[in-house]
Amino acid sequence: MAGFRTLSSGLRALQPGAFGADPRGERMARIRRSPHFKDGVFQNPGGTARTRPSGSTLDFAKVFFDKDTRPRRTPKGTVPVHSTTLADIARPPATGLRLTWMGHSSVVAEIDGRRVLFDPVWGERCSPFSFAGPKRLHPVPLPLAALGPVDVVVISHDHYDHLDMPTIKALAGTDTLFAVPLGVGAHLEHWGVSAGRLRELDWHESTKIGGLTLTATPARHFCGRGLRNTQHTLWASWVVAGDEHRIYHSGDTGYFDGFKEIGAEHGPFDATMIQIGAYSDYWPKNHTDHTPLPGAWPDIHMSPAQGVQAHLDLQGGSPGGVLLPIHWGTFNLAFHAWAEPGEWTKDAAEEVGQAVAFPRPGEPFEPAGKVPVEAWWRGVSHPIAHPWRRPRPAQAAAEAPRHDLDLAGDR
Fold first, then answer.
1. What are 1's strand-pairing partners?
2. Which of 97, 237, 247, 341 lies deepest, with the highest CB count within 10 Å?
3. Residue 22 to residue 199: CA distance in whole angstroms
4. 257 and 309 Cβ atoms separated by less than 8 Å
5. CATH homologous superfamily for 37-410?
6. How would you classify the pairing of strands 212-217 and 237-241?
7. Could you read off the pLDDT of 239-253 as tens digits, one per residue?
8. Where are the domains of the chain?
């Protein structure tokens, strides 16, 4: 009876409609026609990706909720958020391209006179429940209503930390269009977005919106929001190209050879927004060498070094454009220390001479202008105890290609 009461209480706290809707009718028929849909599910490039934790769920929970290790996964002080104002984003960018990281994977991109909003999550929790689930570690820099007109909202996939129902419902009352992977439109229609405002794409398909060309490109991940995960919605990375600029948003993805193909077809890019957090590897306090124990998501999330390598792949193997790290700093989603993704990305990028932007949440910058590089997280984070990769022997390091990171040592 107690268990029934707990379940009933939880269901009452469920945000109505949070699970979204499954694709049906012509939408489902289109999914079945996709060359990437086989045996009833979407397939990842490079074969099946492991989406569940290695080891038992109990082992995973013991580490994640350990009272000694959990504090390092949150900031020890107040995250220095830049209070974005209308003045910050009202004037056109001098160079034609400006990015504003709002936290996690949410980015406002002002490109060639248009405004694109990637993976907007303005909610307090990335969860279907109002009382549980990962909670924000810093406030949203700018109220959604103060953002002003948006030409297109781009969604990478339907997980809660990328597709936020309250945010979408608020945007449903505007004139913005939505570019989403195949099947994801079912959720948006369920939440009030009309079918005429949806541009629903399979991998390698493109749509034109206001002078911009948006292309859904492959990623190595998975999907699902409900208790019954049907794997009938696609996940994607995105290329947005204007008359003068090109940008790339990775969404969530494991590292794979497809970055080189995307770069060859659509690059090089003025800026890439690359996922570098929630990469799963963890070290319990009594684990002293540099080899990570089995983690949770090596196939579907990238580590910092892999994220930098992905940027290099997209650029044809050489440093170029600006890398904006995303998918870190806002929610506690993995075992690693809160500031570790930023610190290790900085190390990996410096090794290959790659420019990386480290804006505070809400701080606009132009990739062709002054790029924020201060390691702002150091003032509010616990010490980072482990190197970003295993040290290589001096001879091996000298013989290694200049623009090829030691990804094997990063696992």
1. none
2. 237
3. 17
4. no
5. Ribonuclease Z/Hydroxyacylglutathione hydrolase-like (3.60.15.10)
6. antiparallel
7. 999 999 999 999 999
8. 37-410
